[in-house]
C-alpha cells in the first residue's frame, strides 16, 4: 500500500512525548511536515525527526498537496477551527481530545468529515490499550451469557501522568502573529467553571469514552455532584445498570484510574496506566468463585496505546475505513461532559 504522508500541526509537549515517536515507528507512513507558530520549535523538532517541510502556519502546511493526513495537538480552544480547516483542505485528521469545546461544533466537524469522505479520529488512545480491549472481550462474554452488571464503578483521581519523561524542547521565541479561530466555551460556564470543564473534557472524559467502548451503549445522566473543578461523583444509568464515575485530583507519585464491574458471581476490575507510561498496558483482575474463591490477574504483553493508536489511524486511511463509531463516542463523551456541568447540583 502507498505510504501515508503525515503533517503535524503543533510541536509541543504531547506531540514530542507521544505522537511523534509513535508515528516515527510506523513503516507505512512518513512524517512529511510540521507547523508551529514558534518557528524555532518547529525547526528543532524537524531536525530530530528528519522532517523535510517546516511551516509557521497550519494553512501553509495544508497547501502541501503531498500531505495526506494531519495530527493536531493544540490548545483546546484552537482545535475546532484548525480541524475544520484540515477537513476543508481534504486531509484525514487525528486530533487530541476534545474535538471541540462545544458538542454542537463537534457534530459539525463530523458532518464535514462525512461530506469530504475523510477519516476524523479523536485521541482517546486508551481504547487502543491492549488491556482495555481484553477487558471488553470479558464484558462481552458475560453479556453473551446473560450476565448483567449489578453495578459499574469507575474512577480517575489523576496523579502523576508523566512518568518523569525526558525534557521536551521549548521555544525561545515569541509565537508569530496568527489569526487562529478561537472557540468559546459553553455560555453557561463562569470563568472558573471553564477551567474545570476544560480539565474534565481533557482528562476525565477518558473514562466516559472507555465505558462507551467497553459496553457499546450510551450513558444516561441521573445526577451529578461535582465542584467547579470537576471533582466529585456523577451517577448514570448504563442499559439499566447503575454506574458511578468518581473524579478527583491527587498529588501522588502514581496514577489512579480504574473501572470495576460487579456481577452476581464475578467482579472484573481494570487498572489503567499513566497516560505517558510507554509500553505498559492496563492490568485486569478477575475475582470469582463461591465455594473456591480465586483471583486472577491478567496483563497482555508489553505495548503502548499511543503506538497502537498511530498504527490504527494509518491502517484505516490505507484501507479507506471511515467507520465513525469512535468519533460518535468522542462526541457523546463531550455531550456528557457538557451535560454534567450544566446540570450539576
The CATH topology of the largest domain turns out to be Dihydrodipicolinate Reductase, domain 2
Termini separation = 53 Å
- As for the number of domains, it is 2
User: Nearest-angstrom radius of gyration?
Assistant: 20 Å
- Share of helical residues: 25-40%
Going across the biggest sheet, name each strand in turn: 8-9-10-7-11-12-13-14
Outline, from the CA principal axes?
Answer: globular
Mean pLDDT: 94
Count of strand segments: 14
Write the layout of secondary structure elements.
Elements: E1 4-9, H1 13-24, E2 29-35, H2 39-49, E3 53-55, H3 58-62, E4 69-72, H4 76-88, E5 92-95, H5 103-116, E6 120-122, H6 130-144, E7 151-159, H7 191-215, E8 220-226, E9 232-238, E10 241-247, E11 255-262, E12 266-271, E13 283-288, E14 294-298, H8 305-319, H9 325-343
Parallel strand pairs: 1-2, 1-4, 2-3, 4-5, 5-6, 7-10
Antiparallel strand pairs: 7-11, 8-9, 9-10, 11-12, 12-13, 13-14
Task: Write a brief structural summary.
This protein is of the alpha/beta class and 345 residues long.
Describe this structure as you would to a colleague.
The protein folds into 2 domains: 137 residues, NAD(P)-binding Rossmann-like Domain (Rossmann fold); 188 residues, 2-Layer Sandwich (Dihydrodipicolinate Reductase, domain 2), CATH 3.30.360. It has 9 helices and 14 strands. Strands 8-9-10-7-11-12-13-14 form an 8-stranded mixed sheet, with helices on one face. A 6-stranded parallel sheet has the order 3-2-1-4-5-6, sandwiched between helices. It is of the alpha/beta class and 345 residues long. Helix 4 runs parallel beside helix 5 and helix 6 crosses helix 7.
Amino acid at each position: 500500500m502507498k505510504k501515508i504522508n503525515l503533517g503535524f500541526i503543533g510541536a509541543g509537549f504531547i506531540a514530542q512525548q507521544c505522537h511523534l515517536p509513535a508515528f516515527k515507528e510506523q513503516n507505512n507512513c512518513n512524517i512529511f511536515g510540521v507547523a508551529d507558530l514558534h518557528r524555532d520549535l518547529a525547526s528543532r523538532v524537524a531536525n530530530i525527526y528528519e522532517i523535510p517541510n517546516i511551516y509557521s502556519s497550519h494553512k501553509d502546511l495544508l497547501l502541501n498537496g503531498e500531505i495526506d493526513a494531519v495530527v493536531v495537538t493544540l490548545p483546546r480552544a484552537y482545535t475546532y477551527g484548525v480541524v475544520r480547516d484540515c477537513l476543508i483542505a481534504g486531509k484525514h485528521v487525528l486530533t487530541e481530545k476534545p474535538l471541540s469545546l462545544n458538542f454542537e461544533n463537534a457534530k459539525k466537524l463530523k458532518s464535514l468529515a462525512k461530506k469530504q469522505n475523510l477519516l476524523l479520529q479523536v485521541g482517546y488512545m486508551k481504547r487502543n490499550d491492549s488491556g482495555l480491549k481484553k477487558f471488553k472481550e470479558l464484558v462481552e462474554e458475560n453479556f453473551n451469557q446473560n450476565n448483567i452488571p449489578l453495578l459499574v464503578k469507575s474512577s480517575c483521581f489523576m496523579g502523576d501522568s508523566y512518568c518523569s519523561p525526558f525534557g521536551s524542547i521549548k521555544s525561545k521565541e515569541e509565537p508569530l502573529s496568527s489569526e487562529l479561530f478561537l472557540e468559546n466555551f459553553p455560555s453557561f460556564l463562569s470563568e472558573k467553571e471553564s477551567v474545570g470543564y476544560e480539565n474534565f473534557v481533557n482528562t476525565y472524559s477518558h473514562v466516559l469514552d472507555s465505558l462507551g467502548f467497553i459496553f457499546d451503549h450510551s450513558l444516561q445522566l441521573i445526577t451529578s455532584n461535582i465542584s467547579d473543578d470537576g471533582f466529585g461523583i456523577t451517577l448514570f444509568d448504563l442499559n439499566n445498570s447503575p454506574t458511578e464515575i468518581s473524579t478527583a485530583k491527587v498529588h501522588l507519585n502514581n496514577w489512579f484510574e480504574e473501572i470495576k464491574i460487579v456481577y452476581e458471581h464475578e467482579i472484573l476490575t481494570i487498572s489503567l496506566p499513566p497516560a505517558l507510561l510507554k509500553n505498559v498496558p492496563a492490568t485486569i483482575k478477575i475475582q470469582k468463585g463461591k465455594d473456591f474463591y480465586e483471583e486472577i490477574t491478567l496483563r497482555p504483553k508489553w505495548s503502548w496505546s499511543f503506538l497502537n493508536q498511530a498504527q490504527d489511524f494509518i491502517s484505516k486511511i490505507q484501507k479507506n475505513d471511515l467507520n465513525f463509531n469512535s468519533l460518535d463516542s468522542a462526541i457523546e463523551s463531550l455531550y456528557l461532559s457538557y451535560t454534567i456541568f450544566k446540570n450539576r447540583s
